[in-house]
Amino acid sequence: MPRDLAETACPKHQHDAGVHEHGSFEPMAVARIVAAAAGAGVVWFWPGRTADALAVAALLFAGWPILREAVSNLLARRMTMELSMAIAVVAAAAIGEFFTALVVALFVLAAEELEHLTVARGRVAIHDLVAFIPPQATVRREGELIQVAVAEIRPGECVVVAPGGKIPVDGVVVAGHSYADQSRITGESMPAEKSAGSSVFAGSINQMGMLEIQVERVGRDTSYGRIIEAVEAAEQSRAPVQRLADQLAGYLVYFALAAAALTWLITRDLRDTISVVIVAGACGIAAGTPLAILGGIGRAAKLGSIIKGGVHLETLGRVDTVILDKTGTLTLGRPVVQELRPAAGVSAGELLAAAGSAEIHSEHPLARAVVEEARRTKAALAEPASFSYTVGRGVTALVDGATVLVGNRKLLADAGVDVPARETGLPGSDIVVAREGRFLGEIIVADVVRPEARGAMAALQAMGVRTLLLTGDTAEVAGRVAADLGIAEVGADMLPEDKLARVEALVASGHRVAMVGDGVNDAPALTAASLGVAMGSGADVTKESADVVLIGNDLGKLVETIRIARRTRAIIWQNFAGTLAVDAVGIVLAAVGLLNPMLAAFIHVGSEIAFLLNSARLLPAAERFRPERNASIQRATPKEA
Ligand SMILES: Nc1ncnc2c1ncn2[C@@H]1O[C@H](COP(=O)(O)OP(=O)(O)OP(=O)(O)O)[C@@H](O)[C@H]1O
Ligand SMILES: [Zn+2]
């Protein structure tokens, strides 16, 4: 069940108990760090029995969480860093090296605190998203304006948003004129003009005038709600690389303990043995990996790309083939009738009326274009008595007692209609129409290629990604679009099952395939692909089956999202390689007696923090609502209007 946005707006629900709220210091952790430092100071400056007693007390107090964690790990038969560090601390204390024990404990505690702060910062950046929707909104009920909780607003109601206010719902403007900053949803930094009929999104900021909005979606159902949901899911879901990271961290502990045993057997030097145990750190990968994934997903969300989990981010970073559907994906999906070509003895109006009537109930973009043109020219439309749709072919309807076919040449040919061959060089896709077995003529429909599509395809190719256009349209139209956009491979006249088979074949041959689509009939191919990408304007099923949704319908954002995914992968692998290198070198140095336990602890903690910060580079900057910046946009925009 989708939870309500307002309900989760309280950040308390979001954090698990172990993590500090809002990235602040926890007094108890600070007290333990201070105790360890003070204890170490006392032993160093005033050595003696009293100092030793104080040191033991400080050690018990400061080292308690490490010890407790180690014991619970031991009981759970899990090999962790806490366990090896606890062994080292206890061993050092046992041979009377209280200073060493305290300093190692100090390093471990400080590193843990830093780790918590970094991870918490990542979560704060993301929960800022949640807190962005105001809990209350102004609604018009029975003619009066009242304040209600956002959770209580229902679709169909009207909300009023004052200038400078945040838009709390997805909906359509019914009155007012303004500009909205939608950067949080679409990643688009230019404010968009809004007037009656415009769609607005929850999470955008109304910049200038009063807007009255008819509510379509509230809370988790809004585009913004889905972004939040995706990011939260990402926090919880575990990418395969995460399991690898945890395993690797476990092996490193075993390896360090084995190396320590060997060191002891050969050198009989307890200090060197302790150094070997201490030096190998793995939190840089154990904690750095989820942080990188969280950062990657958060960053993509800021662009308006919803990635539904770490596993998909990982797949996206390895995609080598991108398959695109034509209508709605490479084109705007709003085709317009260009030309009517009635057959001899048929009038243009008759052709359009027959086609328009048959298509009245079809949701297909081509059908909408035909119906729109029929309405615009006031053609005589009739309600069809029956209506059926053949996937990838077109519609068959009973209009005024006559069977009307509207679709491609195959539809008519299958019904035994004599259709003249398709002329080449038509300015768009052609729809053929027949009534009672007689060819009535052709309707030429053209769609506009998305302005960013060409640049996006070029960028994908530059990144070494193969692009492929698969469409149900004719080879001529498909070839023209592909040539225009610089796409090398084309599959035309494809039924949804042909697309599916093609995707499955590519996946089976070892390619990592992203399928980008928007239509209902793209859903199977999206599911079969290694990664399904849906356009935000697409059908709901398509968005459901997809692993990534491009809310802003911008193919350029797809390219940027792939870049983010690749960067995330690169950072995770840097951390893996770095950790292995530091640990290997450290263990060797410690075993041959070149490190003391404190230096070993310093190397352990220092390298871990370096890798953690490496991951933190991916986190999007925590951006709060900044009135100054928005005010300047507010002044700048009207000039253009
Ligand atoms: N309602 C309809 N009216 C007219 N023609 C239709 C209709 N439905 C399908 N067709 C014909 O069938 C072809 C394939 O349709 P389909 O919906 O499978 O396309 P698609 O593969 O999703 O297209 P694209 O790749 O362009 O998005 C269309 O190009 C059109 O010629
Ligand atoms: Zn560690």
Automatic annotation (TrEMBL):
Catalytic activity line of the entry:
Zn(2+)(in) + ATP + H2O = Zn(2+)(out) + ADP + phosphate + H(+)
Keyword Nucleotide-binding listed? The answer is yes
Q: Which first-to-last residue range defines the signal peptide?
A: none
Record's keyword annotation contains Transmembrane: yes
Compartment(s) of residence: Cell membrane; Membrane
InterPro entries named in the record: ATPase_P-typ_cyto_dom_N, ATPase_P-typ_P_site, ATPase_P-typ_TM_dom_sf, ATPase_P-typ_transduc_dom_A_sf, ATPase_P-type_domA, Cation_Transport_ATPase_IB, HAD-like_sf, HAD_sf
Q: Which residues cross the membrane?
A: 29-46, 53-71, 83-111, 248-267, 273-298, 571-592
What EC class does the entry list?
Answer: translocase
**EC?**
7.2.2.12
Alphabetically, the GO molecular function entries are: ATP binding; ATP hydrolysis activity; metal ion binding; P-type zinc transporter activity
P-type ATPase A domain location: 133-232
Instruction: Quote the cellular component terms of the Gene Ontology held in the record.
Output: plasma membrane
Q: What is its main location?
A: membrane
Task: Write the record's keywords in alphabetical order, separated by commas.
Answer: ATP-binding, Cell membrane, Membrane, Metal-binding, Nucleotide-binding, Transmembrane, Transmembrane helix
Family per similarity comment: Belongs to the cation transport ATPase (P-type) (TC 3.A.3) family. Type IB subfamily.
NCBIfam families per UniProt:
ATPase-IB2_Cd, ATPase-IB_hvy, ATPase_P-type
The name this protein carries in UniProt is P-type Zn(2+) transporter
The organism named in the record is Alsobacter soli
